[in-house]
Specification:
Oligomer: single chain
Shape: elongated
Number of helices: 3
Radius of gyration: 17 Å
Number of strands: 2
Largest sheet: 2 strands, parallel
Order of helices and strands: HEHHE
Length: 65
Amino acid sequence: MRRTWANSPNVLRNDVHQILNGAKPGDIPFYQPTKFQPIINLKAVKALALTVPQSCIDRTDEMIE
């Protein structure tokens, strides 16, 4: 399974399932996400009176208004 932040709940559920079925937590491999999806919440940015650099906006996959 490809590890991304989007499927983190599924990964966590799978790990908990393995532990509840008797696997030792130390035997479950630890994976780091391989893809990050930057999202900027413009409403929160305005509410906090923040300024987002243009370089961050350019890298953002999604803008929430």
